[in-house]
Write a sequence for this structure.
């Protein structure tokens, strides 16, 4: 095998590794985060790398709110963890972003804060 062939071989191998790795990572990550469409994401990732990875990260990371104590993925607008009862603070009831105690309006979506 010549050096050129070896380089091509390594290139293809690396590509395949990244390709399947990305898909697997998305699947595991989505399952871990109890996303409904974990498998759909993984399949989508197989066909549209790396666009799907970027879209996936944007969609899932943008709305993330986790319990500081147990790490449970919190529902939008909850101020207490439904798993361990930890007070996770003031959360916007509209977009789910974390708010300071003194805030009455959410700076992200401009919605007035209503306690639940
Ligand atoms: Zn918790
Ligand atoms: Zn908001």
């Amino acid at each position: 095998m010549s050096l050129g062939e070896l380089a091509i071989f390594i290139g293809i191998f690396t590509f395949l590794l990244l390709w399947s790795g990305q898909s697997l990572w998305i699947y595991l990550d989505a399952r871990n985060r109890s996303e409904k469409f974990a498998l759909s994401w993984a399949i989508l990732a197989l066909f549209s790398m790396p666009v799907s990875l970027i879209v996936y990260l944007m969609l899932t990371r943008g709305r993330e709110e986790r319990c500081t104590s147990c790490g449970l993925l919190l529902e939008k607008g909850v101020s207490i963890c439904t798993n361990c009862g930890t007070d996770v603070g003031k959360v916007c009831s509209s977009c789910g972003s974390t708010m300071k105690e003194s805030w009455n309006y959410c700076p992200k979506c401009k919605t007035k804060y209503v306690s639940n």
In short: The first strand starts at residue 90 and ends at 91.
